[in-house]
Design a protein that fits this description.
The complex is a heterotrimer of chains A (about 270), B (about 240) and C (about 240).
Chain A lengths: L1 H18 L8 E7 H5 L2 H13 L2 E7 L1 H9 L5 E4 L2 H9 L3 E17 L12 H11 L3 E3 L5 H13 L3 H4 L4 E3 L4 H11 L2 E5 H6 L6 E5 L6 E9 L9 H12 L1 H9 L1 E2 L2 E2 L2 E2 L3
Parallel strand pairs in A: 1-2, 1-3, 5-6, 5-7
Antiparallel strand pairs in A: 3-9, 4-7, 4-8, 4-9, 4-12, 10-11
Helix pairs in contact in A: 6-7, 11-12
Chain B lengths: L3 H14 L2 H34 L5 H11 L4 H12 L14 H38 L3 H11 L1 H17 L2 H7 L9 H10 L3 H33 L2
Chain C lengths: L9 E10 L2 E11 L5 E4 L6 H9 L6 E6 L2 E2 L2 H5 L1 E4 L10 H11 L4 H14 L15 H13 L5 E5 L7 H16 L3 E5 L3 H7 L2 E6 L2 E7 H6 L4 H12 L1
Parallel strand pairs in C: 3-8, 3-9, 6-7, 7-8
Antiparallel strand pairs in C: 1-2, 1-4, 4-5, 9-10
Helix pairs in contact in C: 3-4, 3-5, 5-6
Classes of the chains: A alpha/beta (about 270), B mainly alpha (about 240), C alpha/beta (about 240).
Chain lengths: ~270, ~240, ~240
Amino acid sequence: MAGAIWRIWLGLVVGVALIAPAWGAGDFIVLQSTTSTRNSGLLDAILPVFQADSGTEVRVVAVGTGQAIKNAVNGDGDVLMVHARAAEEEFVAQGWGVERFDLMFNDFVLVGPVGDPAGVAGMDDVVAAIGRIAQSRAVFTSRGDDSGTHKAELALWQTAGVDVAAQSGTWYRETGAGMGTTLNIGIGMGGYVLSDRASWVAFGNRQNHRIVVQGDARLINQYGVILVNPARHPRVRATAGQGFIDWLLGPAGQAEIANFRVRGQQVFFPNAK
Amino acid sequence: MQDFAGTFAHSVGLILSGDAELWAVVLLSLKVSLLAVFASAVIGLPLGALLAVGRFRGRQAVIVLVNALMGLPPVVVGLSVYMILSNSGPLGVLQLLYTPTAMIIAQTILVAPIIAALTRELLEGLNNEYAEQLRSFGVSRMGVVATLLWDGRYGLSTALLAGFGRAIAEVGAVIIVGGNINHVTRVMTTTIALETSRGNLALAMALGVLLILLAIMVNASVAALGMSGRAAANV
Amino acid sequence: MSDRGAPLPVTVNDLTYRVGGQVLLDIPSLEISQAWPTMILGPNGAGKSLLLRLLHGLIAPTSGTIRFNGQMAGGAVGRRQAMVFQKPVLLRRTVAANVNYALKVHDVARAERKGRISALLEQGGLSDHAGQPARTLSGGEQQRLAIVRALASDPDVLFLDEPTSSLDPSASLAIEDLIARAARGGAKVIMITHDLGLAQRLAGDIVFLHHGRVCEQTRAPEFFAHPKSHEAQAYLASKLVL
């Protein structure tokens, strides 16, 4: 009796040990990227093309820019594709990345309720618009997650001379979450949200919200791509990763980005040099 | 906002559509959670049984610890497993981060204490009844553990189901260590999180309904399997 | 049947059992002969069950020794003994599986077990219930199963703790018959009971306990005819009134 049960138990232990590592097949790289590139559907559209060309599968981990960079610093990714130029350049300067390349841009838009309590709809100057939001103390929902969008938003507040940290929890609300979650929350509160255009166009739960401010040059959102430094992390799949970067920056990848549409709109504009 | 009736119709349509991507996600969910429950049973059942019959120093402390671990926050477990499996972590060499194996490890850490604690509770009661008789038979300590596990098997299946429930519904840990990578580590809960962040609330909710249906099916099949055996054992 | 060898006197020396300073059992000296079944009698709280558990080695005494044929109680000696409890403890398995378990624990080879199971069930009048869940048996059947399961190991000593206490007269009779046959088969029966009729029919000698002490130990006919101690007289009188 006892013997039989313990033999079964031993069998189970060995079984789990054998089954578990049977994953992790084939040739692949891990891309640390942001939620905007995935949630908009861009990566779903272009990665299969790259895989067909190269035979390399790209596994996407989509988190905020801040976390994506931290994961890359830990060596948990081969290629980094984010949008926060200063942070990217620091990443390379500290030796975590090999070289940063401009990849493409999209732009940010200010989204707000149809009722427009701050009266900013149609303004061309985004800095003036957010200044007016601060003045009227209308609800503004921020990512608050150290992402590229969050960094861009903070830079705008600084230009506008508004100390949002002091307003945190009053009219200025930080969700600490991704773009989609922040949009869901902002819409729920009837607040303003700074979103990248791609995420907004692809977003399915807009209710009574719309774009209120767009087109200011300061709303341009530049994406960069960087190979994680194999000198720092020997397990980085450098050859395959560089192959992916070369494809993205080359004519094939740039054309795929330009051809990508969300609900009929182009949301990413390739600008590799 | 979409209404509930519409959501339910949506999920039924989703199930009937037989969409291959969807079923791959469902299968991976089942595979990861079942293997995690399996691994947790391998750890939790003997551990719980030993705690039920053992009389050693610090036993009460271990029981308190195991009971407390039932409430481990998934995000903390996810972060801990991430830090261990990361390329910068002690086990980075195993290259398990962003694989289903990493998800199984995280879920096992969450589920094993539940199974161990419930097993201890159940078998301690059974042992109170059996202990003298088994000692009279001259059964060894390990033999007592095996006997209790076998005779308590129908009650223990509930402990396994409780563990499965936590595993299949869990998102905080698996999204960190799995990365929610399409076709690799995307499971039902992380898909729900993703579709919610895309603002596709109807699709997210439909997946949620599917998840609930799945949980009901697993519970029902275990109940059906147990029914006849339970009658035979009269418990 | 195994070779049981010479008579098996039980010798108890300076046995005490205390819990928190309270003396529950104090037996300076006691010898139990192999020759006949021994009945332990006494009012509730006398320490009868405690003595049985000490003899079987289920619990350890505070001080003193118990020897079977010179060997200390418990351990290997305990494995050559079996015990039937007041409320039968049946495994959550079938009737046959309960007997099989006892055989397996005592290292009876698989090939031999099947025959032994059917013989034992036959002996207990349980052949028709072999595949039935043990815990769905009636009270009398459960106790019969507990006894034949105890006999599966072919024990030198069979301890029984009030095996008929919760049974009706006809079920008690069937149990009595099983015990008598076990005794004739060579097992030394040491049994606690409150059923004086049963004690008179089965007992060779009586050990009468009161407040944790042995008040008297005499041959059964003499005990029932002329109890020496006041305690035994009072006990028998109360039983006869009832």
